[in-house]
Automatic annotation (TrEMBL):
<comment type="similarity">
    <text>Belongs to the Frigida family.</text>
</comment>
<feature type="region of interest" description="Disordered">
    <location>
        <begin position="386"/>
        <end position="469"/>
    </location>
</feature>
<keyword id="KW-0287">Flowering</keyword>
<dbReference type="Pfam" id="PF07899">
    <property type="entry name" value="Frigida"/>
</dbReference>
<feature type="compositionally biased region" description="Gly residues">
    <location>
        <begin position="412"/>
        <end position="427"/>
    </location>
</feature>
<protein>
    <recommendedName>
        <fullName>FRIGIDA-like protein</fullName>
    </recommendedName>
</protein>
<keyword id="KW-0221">Differentiation</keyword>
<feature type="compositionally biased region" description="Low complexity">
    <location>
        <begin position="397"/>
        <end position="411"/>
    </location>
</feature>
<dbReference type="GO" id="GO:0009908">
    <property type="term" value="P:flower development"/>
</dbReference>
<dbReference type="InterPro" id="IPR012474">
    <property type="entry name" value="Frigida"/>
</dbReference>
<keyword id="KW-0217">Developmental protein</keyword>
<feature type="region of interest" description="Disordered">
    <location>
        <begin position="527"/>
        <end position="548"/>
    </location>
</feature>
<dbReference type="GO" id="GO:0030154">
    <property type="term" value="P:cell differentiation"/>
</dbReference>
């Protein structure tokens, strides 16, 4: 009986083990089925989406094809009309050009009409000369040139002719600066600013015109390389901007390496036009590297403009860059002042550096409308303070220079009674001086022989620019004629401060060249007698005690 019970229990246990195994298999099968079901459902959804996308693209393609065909049909039907309009336009421009050749340009023509006249004649050299002659009216020129060039029979040819003339002048080093500026205006007029950045398609040019522009660009680049390698020329920022504008306008970017443009942009990043053109050059992700390099080189202001023009202000926050630039400028100004031992020259240089930096920051903040994020009140106060301090230093320096010149004049004149002599250099009227010079023409050489080492002198324009009066005095102050005579023979070291200041004038009949009273005429006397100029002591009195 016990044996049967044991056998039954084993069978039951085995049965339950089998059930557990079957349960595990069933659970695994269920999970696998679920996974497969999800996979097939995802495949179904993916196929459905791709099918819908494909159908949408097919419909879009059909729609675009239909629109393109309609556009082509419209263009084909409009060809005769456009051809007639083009012929009429050419005839009109031809007639206008011939009329311009038949009449001469009068001086009464205003600026727009004269520009149009040269453009109609397709006269690039005459146009350049006229633009240079009107350089003071640059604002009007920029406005009127766009319309004037449109009057030309072939505007791109006119501009390219002018550029070739500029490159020839640059090779010969004749009139480069003026022609560079004038050609820059012409290029800007042919490619108005903002087209590249706004996405607007520029003008279309014939293949021959583009090829000619490419040849000019190659020649131009060769000159640039020669300039950078010490060829004797210089490539300014304005010329670099003009070159990039022409390359973008004629779509020649692929003909030059990206590294060439990157170097050009970095060298002339200070030009605001270059920041705008950088976006049209399409540096892509490398634009961030360009801005990074500007920041590392201490050109945070330029980096702000580049970041704003290329849409990278999140990566390069303008406010952060401006604060960094302000800190660096203050640090540099302090370094200059310390290295110069706080001298006047170091103070001037430090002040100029800080003032220019503040002005650049204010301009940048105003251009990008960052006043709400970057306060300018303290900077404006600091700029006002620096400008006032600079003006005061300049005024003080000018006053010191005048005082120094006055002292030199007095020391040179010597004279009794505190500088009353010396040939009357500091006294007398303009009508009196020529008579004395004629009468005593031999007095000054003897004076020079007696005084071999006169004080250092400034230029004649500084010493004798006025009627021989001190800048701080409208009339020379000194003793009266009577007291002058009574003090004759007073020791020469007597200070003029002891003499009462009083207005007086001397006549040629009473006074000699040395400042002594004359009794009649010198009678051919060529020396000054006992007066010892070598022992005369101009420094015996101090300038501050001199009556003013």
């Amino acid at each position: 009986m016990g044996t049967e019970l044991v056998v039954t229990t084993d069978r039951v246990q085995k049965f339950f083990d089998d059930l557990e195994a079957q349960k595990a298999i069933l659970s695994t099968s269920t999970k696998l089925f679920t996974t497969l079901s999800k996979h097939f459902n995802s495949l179904q959804d993916s196929l459905s989406q791709k099918s819908q996308s494909l159908e949408s693209k097919i419909q879009s393609l059909e729609s675009r094809s239909r629109e393109t065909l309609e556009s082509l049909d419209l263009r084909e039907t409009s060809i005769p009309e456009r051809e007639s309009a083009a012929v009429a336009r050419i005839e009109e421009q031809k007639a206008a050009a011939l009329a311009e050749f038949e009449k001469s340009i009068s001086g009464n023509l205003d600026l727009p009409e004269t520009l149009k006249s040269f453009s109609r004649k397709m006269d690039p050299q005459g146009l350049l000369k006229f633009i240079v002659s009107k350089r003071k009216e640059s604002i009007s020129l920029r406005t009127e040139l766009v319309q004037a060039i449109a009057e030309a029979v072939d505007p791109p040819k006119l501009v390219l002719d002018a550029l070739e003339g500029f490159l020839d002048s640059k090779a010969k080093k004749i009139g480069v600066t003026d022609k560079r500026w004038a050609c820059g205006l012409l290029v800007q007029a042919l490619f108005p600013e903002g087209r590249s950045n706004s996405g607007e398609k520029g003008p279309e040019f014939s293949r021959s015109m583009v090829e000619r522009a490419a040849r000019i660009a190659d020649t131009w680049k060769a000159q640039m390389v020669g300039d950078s390698n010490g060829g004797g020329g210089t490539l300014g920022a304005a010329e670099a901007v003009m070159f990039v504008q022409m390359v973008i306008g004629f779509r020649l970017k692929e003909k030059f390496s990206e590294e060439f443009f990157r170097k050009l942009v970095m060298e002339h990043a200070a030009r605001r036009d270059m920041a705008k053109l950088a976006g049209a050059l399409e540096f892509g992700e490398k634009m961030g590297d360009v801005i990074d390099e500007l920041v590392k080189n201490g050109k945070e202001i330029e980096a702000v403009y580049f970041a704003s023009e290329t849409g990278l202000t999140e990566r390069f926050p303008p406010v952060s860059l401006l604060k960094s630039y302000l800190r660096n400028s203050k640090k540099n100004a302090t370094t200059i002042l310390r290295n110069g031992n706080n001298s006047l020259a170091a103070t001037e240089e430090s002040s100029t550096l800080e003032l220019n930096s503040i002005k650049a920051i204010i301009k940048c903040v105003e251009d990008h409308k960052l006043e709400s994020e970057f306060s300018l009140d303290s900077l404006r106060k600091r700029a006002t303070h620096l400008e006032k301090a600079k003006a005061e230093r300049k005024k003080s320096s000018a006053a010191s220079s005048r005082s120094h010149n006055n002292n030199n004049k007095r020391a040179y004149g010597g004279g009794v009674g505190g500088g009353g002599g010396g040939g009357g250099r500091g006294v007398g009227s303009s009508s009196f001086r020529p008579a004395k010079a004629a009468k005593f023409s031999n007095a000054y050489p003897s004076f020079n022989r007696r005084n071999p080492n006169p004080p250092p002198q400034h230029s004649p324009a500084t010493r004798y620019s006025g009627p021989y009066n001190y800048p701080s005095q409208s009339v020379y102050d000194g003793p009266t004629a009577a007291s002058y005579g009574s003090t004759y023979g007073v020791p020469h070291a007597q200070s003029p401060a002891a003499l009462p200041p009083q207005h007086y004038s001397l006549s040629g009949d009473n006074m000699a060249a040395g400042g002594f009273r004359s009794s009649g005429a010198y009678g051919g006397q060529t020396s000054y007698g006992p007066y010892d100029y070598a022992n005369a002591a101009p420094p015996s009195y101090q300038p501050p005690s001199y009556p003013q």
